[in-house]
Design brief:
The protein is an alpha+beta fold. The chain has helices at 2-25, 51-55, 63-73, 97-108, 134-143, 173-176, 206-213; strands at 29-32, 35-38, 78-83, 86-92, 115-121, 125-130, 162-166, 182-185, 196-204, 228-234. The protein starts with a helix and ends with a strand. GO terms for molecular function: isomerase activity.
């Protein structure tokens, strides 16, 4: 009798151990409606590439795809240019979305900070964004070399106080056009319509534009005393 009890106990113990083993084998799956759903490992958040990490450095092949996404995620359209002569507030046009996105992108990456109004022609334009600073050149190098296509279809004209940029269809575009530079008109300049892309207007600070336009320049229209853009910031 004692041997019989021992035998029964042994069989019960063995059966329990076998069931435990079987449960372990299927514990990595969830069964639902007789189908097996395998658990998917979670991807760590810091392994997801940002938009900049995906596209940079920019070039003529990927720049438009980048700004098509960037302009949706970054809807800001007001900026302030801070100079030694005062501040210039600008509203960027929403229907020139790639040029707006480009300016906002460069502003957020502080690419304009420390650059200069390097070409000044009284009663015509003040042109800014250029610099021989190594830090500025490094920032540009990280972002890439690219051009924006012209966008002159919206009827924006070169009236006094607009901000504009050379278009890439101009002959020798890489010599004349740069997404890192811009100009502000001091007076109406309609002969530029259709050749350059107007993408915003000055809302406050035209007196500052006039002061900069009045500085003394050399024979190449470069100010005798450098006119620095201290920084460009986003306005709410």
């Amino acid at each position: 009798m004692r041997y019989l009890l021992l035998l029964v106990s042994f069989l019960v113990f063995f059966n329990c151990e076998d069931k435990k083993t079987k449960r372990k084998k299927i514990s990595n799956s969830i069964t639902k409606n007789d189908s097996v759903i395998t658990k998917t490992p979670k991807v760590k958040q810091d392994s997801v590439l940002t938009l900049e990490e995906t596209f940079l450095p920019l070039n003529d092949d990927n720049a438009m795809a980048f700004f098509a996404e960037y302009e949706i995620e970054n809807p800001e359209n007001k900026v302030r240019i801070v100079t030694d002569f005062g501040t210039i507030d600008i509203q960027l046009f929403e229907n020139t979305q790639y040029h707006r996105a480009n300016f906002i992108f460069l502003t957020k990456n502080k690419v304009f900070d420390g650059t200069q109004f390097h070409r000044v022609v009284k009663d015509f334009v003040i042109q800014g964004g250029s610099s021989d600073s190594r830090e500025v050149l490094k920032k540009r190098g990280r972002i890439g070399r690219y051009l924006l296509p012209p966008d002159t279809r919206h009827g924006h004209k070169h009236y006094r106080g607009v901000i504009s940029i050379p278009s890439s269809e101009i002959e020798n575009a890489y010599k004349l056009a740069s997404p890192y530079e811009f100009f502000i008109t001091q007076s109406n300049q309609h002969h530029l319509d259709g050749k350059y892309t107007v993408f915003g207007k000055v809302t406050d600070g035209m007196d500052v534009v006039d002061k900069i336009a009045a500085v003394e320049t050399d024979g190449g229209d470069w100010p005798i005393r450098n006119v620095y853009i201290k920084k460009v910031v986003i306005l709410k």
